Amino acid sequence: MKQKKLFINPWDYFDPKYPWQLFIGGRGIGKTFGFIEGWIDRLNVFSLYLRRTEKELRTVAASETDGNPFYENVKKKGEKYDFIFEKEKDSENTWNITSRESHEKRGIAMPLTTIGSVRGGGYSRVTDIFHDEFIAEKHIRKIRDEGEAILNAYETVNRNREFDGLPPVRYWGFANAFDIYNPLFVTLDIVTDCERMIARGQQDKYFPDRGLAIHLLEASEEFKKKKEQTAIMRLTKGTKYHDMALGNQFAYNNFSLIEYRNLKGYKPLVKINDSTIFYNNSNYYVSYAINKTVPAYNLENEQDRMAFNREYNYELVEAFVNSRLFFESYALKCLLLDVII
């Protein structure tokens, strides 16, 4: 979907066939504010507002602060757009979200680090999960098994409502392009899909059988012109931050040594997970092509990782250091380097 409006509106992408919607876009293009406005205007929407940690959520919940995206709507559009965060009684980590104008409860807020410990809670009113910043900035420590934690949070909220003929909870994930190899992408096995989208200049990809849609949001030309003149964009021109914040590029990921190669002249060396490492006289190549005639290792298994390293670490590290180790995708690069380096 080519972006023409100054700010994007995530609700323009709403489609009941795709309950999982992932949006990756530059800073300030309207992802978060657009969702909040749509939430407020749609009285049948009751959202679970999800952030990574309780600390993040406390910052947002503090009223009238720059860390509260809800307050920005109040400043721009008036009191109708004011949602109040109030700590739920007898709870250390759950907030009720209430409309200041109508006094109606419109949602709840919880940190991802907590929701897994309260699986018995009742979430039948929740229609949407609004997960802001699902890709962490590079300096922020990730939660262990964070991708699985997101899926478990969704399952905790959705439960078995579809058994009763009810629609599934909608998950809306919003993030900046900090890391293509982020926990949710890895868990859903869509890192390579996203790579291919970038290579093809594709902004939207739909997986009908999975109910999943990925949106790499391109800012409008008007937005880019205005944003280029801001102090931070002038300061960071030519840097990775600029490419990430304005160009929506995964600038912090190193895509060197990623290329597609014809396997003619290559011999299989070893199979790892769902890929094979091939070699010829001078180079190594990690490919999705499967060869079952060579030793196989499951790198999710600790013993297999150790055995693989003992057998192949030296030659693969030496090849990588000398730029003789190539990869069909960035996901395969991360998979192997995480083991050998």
Describe this entry's structure for a reader:
This protein has 341 residues and is an alpha/beta fold. The protein has 2 domains: 10-245, Rossmann fold (3-Layer(aba) Sandwich); 267-340, no CATH class. 33% of the residues lie in helices and 20% in strands. Strands 3-4-5-2-6-7-1-9-8 form a 9-stranded mixed β-sheet, with helices on both faces. Helix 1 (31-41) packs across helix 3. The protein is globular and about 70 Å long. The mean pLDDT is 89.
In short, what is this structure?
This protein has 341 residues and is an alpha/beta fold.
Number of domains: 2
- Total DSSP E strands: 14
CATH architecture of the largest domain: 3-Layer(aba) Sandwich
State the order of secondary-structure elements, H for helix, E for strand: EHEHHEEEHEHEHHEEHHHEEEEHEH
Keyphrases for this structure?
341 residues, alpha/beta, Rossmann fold, 5-stranded mixed sheet, 14 strands, 20% strand, globular
